[in-house]
From TrEMBL:
It comes from the Eukaryota. This is Cytochrome P450. The keyword Transmembrane applies. InterPro entries: Cyt_P450 (IPR001128), Cyt_P450_sf (IPR036396), Cytochrome_P450_Monoox (IPR050196). The keyword GTP-binding does not apply. It holds the Pfam family p450. Keywords: Heme, Iron, Membrane, Metal-binding, Monooxygenase, Oxidoreductase, Transmembrane, Transmembrane helix. One of its GO terms (molecular function) is iron ion binding. The chain crosses the membrane at residues 31-50, 326-348, 354-374.
Amino acid sequence: MSSITPSHIVDTLTDVSSALLASLRRVPSSAALSSVGVLAAAYVILFQYFEINQPAGWRKVPSVTGKAIWNLFFKKTLEEQYQGFFKPTHEEHGILRSSLIRFNRVEVSTPEFARQILSQPDAFPKLIMADRDPTSLTALFFGTNLVFSNGDVWKRHRRIANPAFHRAWNTQVFGDLSLDMFEELDKLVEKGKTADVHDFVQRLTLDALGKTVFDFNFGAIKNPESDYVKTYNEIMKGSTSSLYIIFPWLDKFPLTRRYNSFKNVKHFNALIDNLIDKRRKELDTNEIADEDHADLLSLMIKASDDEKKPSARKSMNDVEMRNNMVIFFLAGHDTTANALACVIYYLAVHQVNHLALCFIFFISFIQGLRFHIFTSQSQDVQRKAHAEVLTLLSADSTALVTPTFDETKHLPYLTNIIKETLRLRPSVAQLPMRIASRDVAMGPYIIPQNTFITINFFALHHSRKVWGDDADEFRPERFEGHQVDEKLADPDADPAVGEGKRDTYSWLPFSFGSRSCKLDLFRFHYLI
């Protein structure tokens, strides 16, 4: 007689569970309740089986499975999730895991673990949504690009994109659009109406990125009901749905609203395709006169065309070009809009000079970063920031003059405000999901192959072990003497961080290394 193995037990339990699920609707409620109990027992046995068959080092990783599952039923902010469920485990161990049958997920929050993940892209490649289900809405919208690719494909995209980011940006675009927004706000004030600040800055950011990335005017500031604006907003709602991110196969059966999301993505993609085609034709007859004032699309097309030369390697096709333009656009939009709303709110509450408010708002806008000014130090922070602004503006000036690219480099205190804000409120709370390509040792722990793994930037940036007892306080001075900035452009650099020369990997608002965020990293670097 053949022996019974654990795999036979698993197969049997799976078959029994499926049969019970199919029959639940055909039995009385009392019998159904009993069947549910059997299903629950089967799940527990399956879970324990997979736990037992994992390496001992995996079982050492602190588990928060129950809390993680419970958390799915509540719409809580990231901070509420962290404070209510995961903070004690992160503070004590710097690592935690959750499991659902064969789905294992790990998040880490120490500089040492972060260093290991970011410095070993072969061991921890990115999880590519298009690979999971190429027919999903997310895959259709994002496709393969610099952010969502690995290996040789990523290297090719990075090689082509690099030249487009190594130049100055035209600050006048941001200044002109900022003034347009203030004009629209003034019109509402004159009519005695209330303005939704977040709505305004969302429209402002949409226009600014449209001009910077595509040299295309969405017209959102002047016309919030335009077709382009509504299409983009609907896409963002659909593509960020957590339900479809967790279960991408649901896109195979789209309901009415989801079906409309697919139509909107196709419409938006067609817009970008037309922009690329139009720009290619323009560049066939006209060279880029001033690269510092050129849009990102033109620079990317030029770089890709340079790759087509006989001595060069494979270039970027139009679909890949579109995918990259979309991801660059999205990388700077919502986070920037939220940041600007916070800037206007906090500076208005603390009643700084109106001209200084406009100028600091502008500086924050071109960086796409967040101010988070609170606690009893706020008035002093605002006073010092105001004084620094006046070093670039004449004290008796009555006009807002757009600063040049070079002038934005001479704001050390505002720079520290931005750094501290990004520590407390990182624009991206967690590293885009990676997946272990093999069993990997991390300290006393083992991360099994195919485990999803991420860095919790929020937990890392609030760690008292890393930042001290005042980790939750807003204190820009902690970054005085900061040594990271001079080396940010070098992905292989390993500089120190401010007071006490903290580990480089203790502050990761843009990730770090060769896969750090190209757009945000560049914008931050040129402010320094």
